[in-house]
């Protein structure tokens, strides 16, 4: 935080003195930049540092921060984002003061004239919108764009090539959760810290490549070119029979996760850290069974943003959901991540084949099928 140094309350003098922040406000860097726009990685850093500052306030029993916006975030002499202390003003302690444009105020303030701790999360959602879009988009308009899946409209065009489709989708889901009208449906600041920390780490590794460069898996050359028998799931992937793939993947259940994640999940459940996330998985599974693939994507994404380890089965299911939604690049990314999470899971290779066929890459798809079949034979 930008620390408060002192105050003055003598006669008519009412002053607060805070640390000097020489590198201006987030609003200046987002909306009025002169040389170059703020990079994706720095925007995630701002979001994470702001969430960390808010959680620090919570730890000290200060759970109301008023009018969180891009003018409240300042940059110190080395370029680190700092949260201004002025949002903690004493006259706002009872939640009766709110100075922002009402178009950006939390719904409960418009209904009741007061704010609550969950209102801070709503304001954080508007901050995420600003960081993603480089514009000050009213929450109601953003929610319409969320419902219409108009994700490209939400993203700042200056960020092209700086993030993966998965990271973009995950950040949009976080923002949409923060902006839910019912306060008890919004995530905690601690949850947001965890999710943003993972996104920031992935951003550090993301290559600065153009969107059209499709990632393709590489395979070791097989010892023989003889055709290998395919399992029913492999055949369904070769035919790109999405309905058949859905039926078979549903029947497979979560057997693969027994090897990879059960112990870790059990520990997290014991400590109570995973209960909310397991509910997201249950909702995702229910939507998957009901063939409501867009809803399944949303819940599976929320589950994975807070899971301690990667679930190969959830990745495989979300991959198929993306295929059903004609999001072939996102599907291929999930299929490749499934293989990384569980190298012996032949389903991952079969899913890659289906994705590659949808992308018109038949030669690569045949190799993926061959290696999947070889893996099962082994």
Automatic annotation (TrEMBL):
Give the UniProt keywords, A-Z: ATP-binding, Brassinosteroid signaling pathway, Cell membrane, Kinase, Lipoprotein, Membrane, Myristate, Nucleotide-binding, Serine/threonine-protein kinase, Transferase
Q: What is its EC number?
A: 2.7.11.1
Query: What reactions does this protein catalyze?
Result: L-seryl-[protein] + ATP = O-phospho-L-seryl-[protein] + ADP + H(+); L-threonyl-[protein] + ATP = O-phospho-L-threonyl-[protein] + ADP + H(+)
- The primary site where this protein sits is membrane
Q: Name one GO molecular function term.
A: protein serine/threonine kinase activity
> Out of the domains of life, which is the source?
Eukaryota
Listed Gene3D superfamilies: Tetratricopeptide repeat domain (1.25.40.10), Transferase(Phosphotransferase) domain 1 (1.10.510.10)
State the SUPFAM superfamilies in the record.
Protein kinase-like (PK-like), TPR-like
EC class, as a word, reads transferase
A Gene Ontology cellular-component term: plasma membrane
Protein's membrane topology: Lipid-anchor
The Protein kinase domain extends over 1-199
- InterPro entries membership: BSK (IPR045845), Kinase-like_dom_sf (IPR011009), Prot_kinase_dom (IPR000719), TPR-like_helical_dom_sf (IPR011990), TPR_BSK1_C (IPR058209)
Q: Which GO terms describe its biological process?
A: brassinosteroid mediated signaling pathway
The places in or outside the cell where this protein is found are:
Cell membrane
Job description of the protein: Serine/threonine kinase that acts as positive regulator of brassinosteroid (BR) signaling downstream of the receptor kinase BRI1.
Note the subunit structure.
Interacts with BRI1.
Query: Which family does the UniProt entry place this protein in?
Result: Belongs to the protein kinase superfamily. Ser/Thr protein kinase family.
The protein depicted here goes by the name: Serine/threonine-protein kinase BSK
């Amino acid at each position: 935080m930008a620390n408060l140094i002192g105050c003055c309350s003598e006669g008519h003098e009412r002053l607060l003195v805070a640390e000097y922040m020489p590198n201006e406000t987030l609003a200046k860097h987002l909306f009025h930049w002169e040389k170059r726009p703020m990079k994706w990685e720095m925007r995630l850093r701002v979001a994470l540092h702001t969430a960390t500052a808010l959680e620090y306030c919570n730890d000290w029993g200060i759970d109301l921060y008023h009018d969180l916006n891009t003018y409240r975030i300042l940059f110190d002499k080395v370029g680190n984002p700092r949260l201004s202390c002025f949002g903690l003003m004493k006259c706002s302690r009872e939640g009766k003061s709110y100075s922002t444009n009402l178009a950006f105020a939390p719904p409960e303030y418009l209904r009741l004239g007061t704010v609550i701790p969950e209102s801070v999360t709503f304001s954080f959602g508007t901050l995420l919108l600003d960081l993603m879009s480089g514009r000050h988009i009213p929450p109601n308009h953003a929610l319409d764009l969320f419902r219409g899946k108009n994700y490209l409209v939400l993203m700042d065009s200056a960020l092209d090539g700086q993030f993966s489709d998965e990271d973009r989708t995950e950040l949009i889901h976080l923002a949409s959760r923060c902006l839910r009208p019912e306060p008890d449906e919004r995530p905690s600041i601690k949850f947001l810290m965890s999710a943003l920390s993972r996104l920031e780490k992935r951003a550090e590794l993301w290559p600065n490549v153009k969107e059209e460069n499709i990632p393709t898996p590489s395979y070791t050359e097989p010892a023989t070119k003889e055709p290998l028998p395919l399992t029913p799931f492999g055949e369904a992937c070769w035919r790109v029979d999405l309905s058949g793939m859905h039926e078979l993947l549903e029947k497979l259940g979560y057997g693969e996760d027994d090897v990879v994640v059960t112990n870790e999940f059990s520990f997290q459940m014991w400590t109570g850290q995973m209960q909310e996330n397991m509910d997201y998985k249950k909702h995702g599974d229910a939507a998957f069974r009901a063939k409501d693939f867009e809803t399944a994507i949303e819940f599976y994404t929320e589950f994975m943003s807070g899971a301690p380890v990667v679930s190969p089965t959830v990745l495989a299911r979300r991959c198929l959901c993306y295929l059903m939604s004609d999001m072939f690049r996102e599907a291929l990314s999930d299929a490749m991540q499934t293989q990384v999470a569980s190298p012996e899971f032949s389903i991952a290779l079969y899913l890659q084949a289906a994705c590659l066929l949808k992308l018109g890459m038949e030669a690569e798809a045949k190799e993926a099928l061959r290696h999947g079949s070889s893996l099962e034979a082994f």
